[in-house]
Amino acid sequence: MDFCSDQYVLKLADREQILALSPDAKRDFSYMRKEATGLPMVRPLAEDVLILKPDLVVRSYGGGINATRFFERAGVPVLQVEWAMSILGTDANSVTGVIAAVANGLGQPLRGEQLISEYRSRLGQIRTQASDKSALYITPTGVTTGGGTMEHRMLEAAGLSNFFSLSGWHALPLEQLAYERPDMVAAAFFDSRTNHAQNWSAARHPLARRELTSAGVVQLEGAWMSCGGWFILEAVEKLARQALIDG
């Protein structure tokens, strides 16, 4: 029903299990877009979905807030893909917890266990390469983030400290950048054709542009950052490698 649930279905389900994907399954911000090639797509509208007579609807946010209740009343069970909020945790809201829940819901528990094992192995290798460097997360819309977010935990998993100290999402700290500079910049979504800097974006400010053109900038694909899935490891690994290169 949406491209977040597309990722898990494409990774964990058998191809013949997939009746249809969301219209965003092949977009640039979809990590599993290559695997979506050749599969049918359906708009996240109740009528369009029900006419396909699915055995199961898989959704994160697709169809709106009442989608689950509607489909269940129509006799179609719904598998909810939760939003992971922890990279390292083991609870239901961690990346591994979401993988396990979706894999079980799709009748593919062994495939889920394999993905979790690979994820933990890669994560363990990254965590052995801790750095004392700071990094600032920047998006084209001129915002950054601090504690309590997946992006903050991404920096921590890469062995980096967050240059930005406040919790949650905020405009870029231009005043702070006038006096201090991060060791690295994690620039995400700049590859996106739909998420770019507007005329009044703080990302266009000379101080922000200075950081975005510095030697320490690390470009992160938007597809790695979307949906809080296992693929955020791509971003963590790239950040950790760059920290080692910079010494």
Would you write up a description of this structure?
The protein has helices at residues 3-12, 46-50, 67-73, 95-105, 109-127, 150-157, 174-177, 206-212, 222-225, 232-245, and strands at 57-59, 78-80, 134-138, 143-145, 161-162, 169-171, 184-188, 217-220. It has a 4-stranded parallel sheet with strand order 5-3-7-8. A two-stranded parallel sheet has the order 1-2. A two-stranded antiparallel ribbon has the order 4-6. It is an alpha/beta fold and 247 residues long. 36% of the residues lie in helices and 11% in strands. It starts with a helix and ends with a helix. Helix 5 packs parallel to helix 10. It is globular.
